[in-house]
Amino acid sequence: EDPQLAPHLALMASAFAYHTDTHGEFVIQGGVRLVIDLYSRSPVEHVRLCCLLTILYLAETPRARQSIAQERGLMMLLTACENETHIDLVTNAMKAMIPFASSDDFRPELGLEGGMDTFASFLFSDQITLQQLGCYLLQNLLELKANRRIFLGLAEEKKCEEDYLEPLTKFLPIVMKGPPKRIVRMKKPRKDGEDKEDSNLGPHDPFMLRTSIHCIALLSLEHNEEAKERFIELGIPTKFYDLFYSEQIDKSSGEAVVLFFANCLHSSSMMQGRIMKGIEVIPLLLSAKEMEFSPHTNTRCLSALLSISRVPDFRRMVVGQLDLIMASVNSNLSSRERDEDFYATTAIHCALLCELARASTDFHEKMAKAGVVEAFLVFMTVAGRGVNDEMCIELLMSAVFGISALVSSPKTGEQCMTSLLFPATRLQLFMSLLRLPAQDINLIYHAGTIGLRALQRTADPAITPEELQVGGLPLDEFMERCGVKPAAFVYRNVIRTLGLLLAHSEMAERVQQAIAAPRLVPTCLFALKDAEDTYVNVY
Fold first, then answer.
1. E strands of 321-449, at which residues?
2. What are the residue ranges of helices labelled H in 84-235?
3. Cα–Cα distance for residue pair 408/373, rounded to 1 Å
4. Contact at 8 Å (CB) between 40 and 25?
5. Alpha carbon of 505 to those of 408, 450, 497, 502, 535: distances in Å?
6. Omega into 522 within 30° of 0, i.e. cis?
7. pLDDT tens-digit profile of 170-229?
8. The whole model's pTM is what?
9. Could you give phi then psi for residue 201, rounded to 5 degrees?
10. Is 201 helix (H, G, I), strand (E, B) or coil?
């Protein structure tokens, strides 16, 4: 309360807090409460600056951060950001917020207390330092789903005072030249000052460009049609596409751009068409593996590609990139590490090829030349053992259906039959699926696998981990909801393929050579006994 004492107290507190080894005792002695109280009472800028510096130093320690939050220190910092007029006070208040905005423990509170409006308002500042700090803090808050919903106006409990998406896009510069054919520079780290004169971007701040890209990419995680509509109105897909191929953004920003497209393309066919209008998105999605982005990014890109391939109007575009897709398939299958990312990627690869195989016979010739039948057989061998030694039923279902579709092709059926028959071990592997117990297949499908969950996220990208759990649903009730039981689906396509092979005048003899009758009859009898499907029994 003594105005002459306050400056000395504030300065002494900041001097103590500067040394991290004093933080524990400082918190125990009630220093945090003293500093916050001192800040709120003093009209002197020097005192308030020392108080903010004290909080800035204390925020480095987890225990001190908890104490600051308990004493309503976050509200003090937000108030300082909004009400202070001196740039040094505002800057230090924002810097003190960084450890809180970066922590999952404090992001919800900051979002509900108006942190989104506070930080986003600095996008309108004429001070580049405040713009950078505001955008960086905003990026950290948008890591939380609840905060993204607040920003987009989707949350009921809290909404932003303004639409801050358009101000974010103003930090995306114009690309002066057309997109180059290669993206070599992004693969290699660039030295400071290298090729600065060669920049083809309009005036911009590199830090603001990077943080704006990441903010928008995080917002695309919400899979909201209204938000995607807004992205298109603001021209974000075109701007991101040009920036990606401009060779002027860093690798992290490039990955964020690719994730933006992958997230947005999990949508309706009309929305997909509007996003892809005038730009070649499919090669961009397939560049994720070549650019050595994270496995998660690669999986999301392939998932988007699968989503696109399910739309008849876009399938031909996907088949046009079949060579790149097969290169991605072969690269993944040759990987030595068989972790969760491997099986999720494999499941989407197999489903994508299966989708193209069933789409149209016009694609079959190209698929046969690319070795898709051989790829399906490799998927079947991989399916035998998952991460937890479980059967990867999703690979079996996609592979047998894809092989059945290619073998029945009026154009390239014989070529695909030959690929399945030579060597004979391929057909024997295919035939062995009839010996898999139906109950085991159905149980694994009910329990779920890594690949099945990846495919479910493709069908419904907004699905939550809790919704992916069906452990509480009894097996019998679950199977009743399946139009065709998984085991019957596998048996049907194996039997159908064998029927086509045996009905072919030239292939029938080779089938009998590959699988002797003493082995064929017991296998079919096992399938007859284990299957309750009329289709399987008749054939």
1. none
2. 87-101, 107-112, 115-120, 128-141, 145-152, 165-169, 184-187, 206-219, 225-233
3. 12
4. no
5. 14, 42, 15, 8, 24
6. no
7. 999 988 754 444 455 555 555 555 544 456 788 899 999 999 999 999 999 998 899 999
8. 0.89
9. -100, 150
10. strand
